[in-house]
Amino acid sequence: PRKIIIDTDPGQDDAVAILLALASPEDLEVLGLTAVAGNVPLPLTQKNARIICELAGKPEIRVFAGCDAPLSRDLVTAEHVHGKTGLDGPQMADPVMPLQDQHAVDFIIDTLRREPAHTVTLCPLGPLTNIATAFLRAPDIMARVQQIVLMGGAYFEVGNITPTAEFNIYVDPEAADIVFKSGAPIVVMPLDVTHKALTTRARIEAFRGLGSEPGRMVAEWTDFFERFDMQKYGSEGAPLHDPCVIAYLIRPELFTGRHINVAIETQSDLTLGMTVADWWGVTDRPANALFIGDLDAEGFYQLLIERIARL
Ligand code: BDR
Ligand code: CA
């Protein structure tokens, strides 16, 4: 199995991604979850990460709290999408499993230095603050990363928090800039692909029909944020953004994209956090990312349902 660190700001779609990873031990070894401020503030994202581990029946997974604010800006949150707790929908009890004492950034640095080079993949599902802080503090680790598979950005689908920016990149554009310039191999799941990974009634009912606690939670979470997304986009269902990252690691053949240059706008007020993706190769800037544009949505949901059924 591939060793991964999931950097996350749960978030219902983060939660589904984490469940998918924890349900897939033959493919993925989750070394730890690192929480970051994003959808909701850090005290909630680190707590939610632990709630999800317990829901998966894996209280032994280590959860670390990381940065509580972007590198140089005030935190922007998304309670309007995810609710006050970040995991609104079902009622959930507080977790019993402990939070690790070590800071998430130190855990990321130590892990990348300890494990053989190119054997640890980072999976950022929120703003890139923890990853960029680790790279700033320990530049030697950038060359040791196997891959960074992240959810963030948008090109044809443009923005969801501003007309041109996707939430994760917008919240900490300076961090995103550092990560995209790091030289580490990057795979990007932008809104262009996640907006094709839509929940439908039948898909939600398939989760509920599993008859398990995790199945019921996934159905209730998606019920909750569907309301917002369907109104906003007029789409059939809601995009399950973050699980695309984990599904890519398990079944890359479900996804297609292009190796292109992606640059981050950090200056303009109007287009702050835009992922300027050279999809048509009109500059001579070298490719720094595999930018995913499409997925087999049916295969993606089959994988999700089959794996969540194991929990
Ligand atoms: C991203 O922002 C968050 O609200 C979601 O969890 C996802 O990571 C989508 O723009
Ligand atoms: Ca997220």
What does this protein look like?
It is a single chain. The chain has helices at 12-22, 42-55, 79-82, 104-114, 129-137, 167-171, 173-180, 191-194, 201-208, 213-233, 243-250, 297-308, and strands at residues 2-8, 28-35, 63-65, 120-124, 145-151, 186-189, 255-260, 262-264, 275-277, 289-295. Strand 1 (2-8), helix 1 (12-22) and strand 2 form a beta-alpha-beta unit. Helices cover 37% and strands 17% of the residues. It is of the alpha/beta class and 311 residues long. Helix 1 packs antiparallel against helix 10, helix 4 crosses helix 5 and helix 9 (201-208) packs antiparallel against helix 10. The strands form 2 sheets. The chain has an 8-stranded mixed sheet with strand order 3-2-1-4-5-6-10-7, with helices on both faces. Strands 8-9 form a two-stranded antiparallel sheet. Bound molecules: beta-D-ribofuranose (BDR) and calcium ion. Residues 11, 13-14, 39, 78, 81, 125-126, 151, 160, 166-168, 241-242 line the site of beta-D-ribofuranose.
Index terms:
eight-stranded mixed beta sheet; binds beta-D-ribofuranose; 17% strand; IUNH; alpha/beta; 311 residues
* Rg, Å, rounded: 18 Å
Major beta-sheet overview: 8 strands, mixed
The shape is globular
Structural class: alpha/beta
Beta content comes to: 15-25%
Helix content: 25-40%
Give me the strand/helix succession. Answer: EHEHEHHEHEHHEHHHHEEEEH
Number of strands: 10
**Are there runs of 5+ residues with pLDDT below 50, and where?**
none
InterPro entries: I/U_nuclsd_hydro_CS, Inosine/uridine_hydrolase_dom, IUNH, Ribo_hydro-like
Domain Inosine/uridine-preferring nucleoside hydrolase: 4-302
Pfam families: IU_nuc_hydro
Keywords: Glycosidase, Hydrolase
